[in-house]
Design goal:
heterotrimer; A: alpha/beta; 6-stranded mixed sheet; 4-stranded antiparallel sheet; 11 helices; 25% strand; C: 336 residues; mainly alpha; globular
């Protein structure tokens, strides 16, 4: 961890119609760390990701990436700067085979630049990346149609889509959801490897035990506000966090 | 003064034409390209009923509008229902239906069908005569148009806010899945919306056509007007549609007064392009440019 | 509801499997399997003009133009998700530019056609640009409106020959040039498109059609790619228009006719959306049919539309996909 602030979110707010989805959220992400974002359903976690990655324009507030303001930039420009995200609702390009799914990010300006303008054999690169994330090359898994893959592979494909961009930050929106225990256990080494490669990550999760194994810091959202921030175990002792998750005890006397 | 009156009339004309289309699109997300063709169909049908079958005018109108609702329903039931969800196919199919109707009306020589060609078909106004407002003479028919337009909007508002069917239409328009979970039947609602939308097209036809004559080519123009209102006002926005009708209605009348009738279309095209460049989702469009799908 | 006791099972034919990738070069029969349909198509198209009389040769030229439009439509609809309801725009713009260059400056067809193809495509792309940022339906609406608007404006402003059009344009030296030029262009365009869609750009466009949010999240500027797609389709369409104006030697409002918008769509749906070859085939079937029915006036259009809807409801895969499936797979009933 080099300790520089790579992503800063200031006073972010967003309302949809009458619903205040995000209210005055601010946090900083340090280079090389894994930040967990937790909170009950509907607390605005995915909206937060949309705001940071440019899919939704905030009402107020700013987002800074590597010191430069990216608020209001279109999503593809933000991705090209190195800030990528996965989608909670899995939607690969159904009719294409798995490795062809990666052709899209491999054609982005960011990847082109890193290869000095020439793309080369994108098919081979795609298959290599899939190999890294655990698509067994010998079993011909990369060649299967994306629409036919089981969930575990789809989640890895989502990560691969981000990895193909050679990102500096990946925001993982619930990558563990829907997976079985063994699938999650086999995903964790992949995420740790990404961290070792120097990629900073934000992980939005419901599976607290697995998340706490990875996260350095955690923020807790409730009803669109950040109600706590700190090391995982400290945060879980926080009164407001407990109230958000478990509710308050009803006094019977 | 003259511009004010004719501008208002023109605006209501646009509003009447567009309201049926907006309803169908808002509810079932299907752009009913056959809207203009139903307009023309009703015109010719009424003409036939009155001239060939010598029916009473009011009765003919009533029957025609009823038939238009049935036609709308059939279009959904026979064609669109199988294509639900496949956006490209829905557009192509409704476009094809529109052509079948419009070009079909111009066919000659099939089983003795003479085809409706030439400027000889016209519907008589409901009430003959004019009235003087200020220093301008206005046909009663034009006043009837304004009256009809206002009542239609009012009735629709009441319908969608206070009746069960109307509320189900609004529900589906806002969130299809949620409405379905509450027991609102998606296909049936879409059929109802298409029936009402077509009936509105028919109503617009019988009210507006007496101002001029009926021609099959007008079908394309009517469709374009409806589409223009939706683009400028914002696809799916009611307030936008009404606002856009007034914007276009007045813009076109003003340009006629200043530059002559032929420039009307230029003004229309210009306004559309301007909106697409400056405010793509329309004047009151709530839809964002980038569709939310996360 | 009783469960079926048997179902259809489809398997790739063994020869299809053997011809995947490099293995295709391993024997004559395999190479033949791959080359036969393509060669057959080229040979038939090349031979047709030799056996037809003058009238039907002209029809073949028309069919070629519609084939180009159908190819463009299929490409835009299946590979970019843009339904273009106004093919007439390309024909009109291409035809008018080419014809005007010819009548105003006297430049020969050899010069005006390429110029009209390129600049016409540029003009069409620019006109359609504002709606590419928006959802697909806007493109459908706007592309439908523009040919009709073009007619209104030309009449309103009284330019470019207004309602009478301009006659006396240069034509081609002889019928053989006419026929083989268009057939050549159709074949080249077809193979070029097929090549294009298997390249990376084709994959990206299909991705855009499937899920444009994910494409954006992968750093691709979706609007830029859609613009490229429209430009490519406009190129072939405008060539058709430029060719047409010189074929008959005049330009007029009929270049923006609805026919140019609807017949390619019918040809594409009938021929098989997505196959690129299907629409071309569809055009070569529907155009002669339309000619034969010329005496029946508007019945033609009604007929195309009925065929279109029929295919869409009952055989949505279209002819070409059906034939291709039969060629590559065999099916049999299997007990469940």
């Amino acid at each position: 961890m080099s300790g520089e602030c790579i992503l800063e979110v200031r006073k972010l707010s967003k309302a949809f119609g009458g619903v205040q989805a995000i209210r005055n959220v601010h946090f900083s992400l340090m280079e090389g760390e894994i930040l967990g974002v937790i909170g009950p359903n509907g607390s605005g976690k995915t909206t937060l990701v949309n705001l940071i990655s440019g899919f939704v324009r905030p009402d107020t507030g700013q987002v800074f990436f590597k010191g430069k303001e990216i608020t209001g930039l279109p999503p593809h420009k933000i991705a090209n700067l190195g800030l990528t995200r996965t989608f909670q609702v899995m939607r690969p390009y159904h009719t294409l085979s798995a490795f062809k799914n990666l052709i899209v990010p491999l054609n982005s300006p960011r990847v082109r630049q890193s290869r000095g303008g020439k793309l080369g054999d994108t098919d081979a690169v795609a298959i290599d990346i899939l190999d890294e994330v655990g698509f067994e090359r010998d079993a011909r898994v990369p060649f299967k149609t994306a629409g036919s893959l089981p969930l575990g592979y789809l989640k890895r494909l989502e990560l691969a889509r981000c990895i193909a961009l050679k990102p500096e930050v990946i925001i993982c929106d619930e990558v563990f959801s829907g997976l079985s225990m063994s699938e999650i256990t086999s995903m964790i080494p992949l995420l740790e490897r990404l961290r070792m490669d120097g990629i900073t990550m934000i992980m939005i999760e419901h599976r607290l035990r697995e998340l706490f194994r990875l996260a350095d810091k955690v923020i807790v959202m409730n009803f669109g506000e950040k109600i706590a921030e700190g090391i995982p175990h400290e945060v879980m002792e926080n009164e407001m966090v407990k109230k958000a998750y478990w509710g308050t005890e009803k006094k019977t006397s | 003064m003259e511009i004010l009156i004719y501008g208002t009339v023109n605006s209501i004309v646009f509003a009447l034409i567009a309201v049926g289309f907006t309803l169908v699109y808002g509810v079932s997300r299907v752009p009913n390209f056959a809207h203009g063709s139903i307009y023309v169909l009703v015109g010719f049908f009424t003409w036939s009923l009155v001239n060939d079958l010598k029916l009473n005018y009011a009765l003919a109108i009533f029957i025609s509008i009823a038939i238009s609702a049935v036609v709308g329903l059939l279009i959904y039931r026979v064609v669109l229902i199988r294509l639900r969800g496949m956006a490209t196919s829905e557009i192509i199919a409704s476009f094809a239906v529109s052509l079948i109707i419009l070009e079909g009306l111009r066919m000659q020589g099939i089983a003795g069908f003479k085809g409706f060609i030439g400027p000889f078909y016209a519907l008589p106004p409901f009430v003959e005569g004019k009235i003087q407002i200020g220093d301008v003479f206005v046909d009663y028919q034009r006043l009837i148009i304004v009256g009809t337009g206002v009542s239609v909007v009012l009735l629709l508002w009441l319908f969608t806010h206070y009746t069960k069917t109307g509320l189900s239409l609004r529900a589906i328009a806002q969130d299809e899945r949620a409405a379905m979970m509450l027991g609102v039947h998606s296909d049936r609602t879409a059929m109802i919306s298409l029936a009402i939308g077509s009936a509105l097209a028919g109503l617009a036809a019988v009210t507006i056509l007496p101002l001029g004559n009926i021609a099959a080519e007008a079908g394309y123009r009517v469709l374009i007007y409806a589409l223009a209102v939706c683009i400028i006002g914002g696809l799916g926005s009611w307030g936008g549609a009404i606002l856009a009708s007034f914007v276009i209605g007045f813009a076109m009348k003003i340009s006629t007064a200043l530059f002559g009738a032929l420039w009307e279309s230029v003004v229309l095209v210009g306004t559309i392009i301007l909106i697409l460049l400056l405010r793509p989702s329309g004047l009151l469009g709530k839809q964002k440019e980038i569709e939310e799908r996360v | 509801m009783a469960l079926k006791d048997r179902r259809k099972k489809r398997l790739d034919r063994s020869i299809k499997v053997r011809t995947g990738g490099l293995y295709a070069l391993s024997s004559w029969s395999e190479m033949g399997y791959l080359i036969a349909p393509r060669l057959g198509l080229i040979l038939i198209l090349a031979a047709l003009p030799l056996v037809l009389d003058m009238y039907w040769q002209r029809v073949l030229c028309s069919a070629g133009i519609f084939a180009l439009l159908a190819l463009g439509f299929d490409f835009l609809a299946e590979y970019a998700g843009l339904v273009c309801l106004g093919g007439a725009l390309f024909i009109g713009v291409g035809g008018y530019i080419s014809g005007l260059l010819n009548s105003t400056f006297g430049w020969p067809a050899l010069v005006t056609i390429p110029l009209a193809t390129f600049f016409g495509a540029a003009v069409c792309t620019v006109i359609l640009l504002p709606c590419l940022r928006l959802r697909g339906i806007y493109f459908a609406i706007v592309s439908f409106m523009f040919p009709l608007f073009a007619v209104f404006i030309i009449i309103a402003l009284g330019v470019f020959g207004s309602t009478e059009g301009i006659t006396g344009l240069d034509s081609f030296p002889n019928i053989w040039v006419e026929v083989y030029l268009i057939i050549g262009v159709v074949v080249v365009a077809l193979f070029a498109m097929r090549r294009l869609v298997s390249e990376d750009i084709g994959v990206i466009l299909r991705g855009i059609k499937d899920n444009d949010q994910a494409v954006r999240a992968s750093g691709i500027n979706v609007t830029a790619y859609k613009t490229r797609a429209v430009f490519i389709a406009a190129l072939i369409g405008c060539f058709g228009g430029a060719y047409l104006s010189h074929l008959y030697g005049w330009l007029g409002l009929s270049l923006f006719a609805m026919d140019f918008s609807i017949l390619p769509i019918a040809a594409t749906v009938m021929g098989g959306m997505g196959s690129l070859v299907g629409p071309v085939l569809g055009a070569f079937i529907l155009t002669p049919m339309s000619e034969a029915l010329r005496g029946f006036g508007q019945l033609r259009v009604v007929l195309y539309c009925l065929i279109l809807i029929g295919f869409m409801l009952y055989k949505p895969e279209g002819l070409m996909n059906y034939l291709q499936r039969k060629y590559e797979q065999y099916e049999h009933w299997e007990e469940v």
